[in-house]
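Quick note —
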Amino acid sequence: MLKLRTFRPAHVGKFDSALTCTVILVFQPAEEGGAGAKAMMDDGLFTRWNVDEIYGQHNQPGTPIGHFGTRTGALMASTDEFTITIKGVGGHAAYPHKTIDPVVVGSQIVSALQSIASRNVGPLESVVISVTFFNAGTAYNIIPDTAKLGGTIRTLNQDVRKQAAERVKQVVEGVCAANGAGVDYEFSDGYPTTANHADQTKFATTIAAEIAGNPDKVDTNIAPTMGGEDFAYYLEEKPGAFIFLGNGDSAGLHHPKYDFNDEAIPYGCSYFIKLVETAMPTT
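Predicted structure written out below.
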């Protein structure tokens, strides 16, 4: 019979429990933009196996080793994307009055989009609209015909998500119309909000406190992050909780100098083992 064993923090007792339930380990690809969680679900993750609850964790730079953090409800943001192709009229840079300059139009769009957070969405709500690329032109003395911009919309609830998406489209089309430019606008629904379930979050933080050795090392109401996570798809279908595991004072996630701290491994492994050991039936 399979036993639960792992290396563990010194204060954590020995794991040596026989499994009395089925534990599904999800080895999922393509979290970074590829919606691997959704692909796993489409491939039968929850229909081929009788999954009751699901739990995940994520490394968190800036949080001390042996510390955990999470919250009930919205923990991480939805991640939608937009692409804007502005169609102007190119010409010589010395005669801008004979052109419709897509660079100027695009610049106005970038600025105008920032008013959505400050003037359209309620001040107690959260929204981030970031233009992350702006491509136009190939020469110093030529105003180009077109410009291409794109970016991301991040929100923490569905109503704001819908509102922000609608306003981005309205702003883009309005600015282009005001300047006499054409536009092709593309919008892509991304990951939904990662929203933890109340009972499972309470259970997860109880386990984390035991592994941490002190309830004060578990922040049960951390501020939501506007980063995204495709674990959100799992939580839309099954009750569960996602928790952050401290990586210590390291470079941030996605930073070229990021380095996973191996000292976090015993805490992360022990958390999952203790969670299974506690949740499984006693007979």
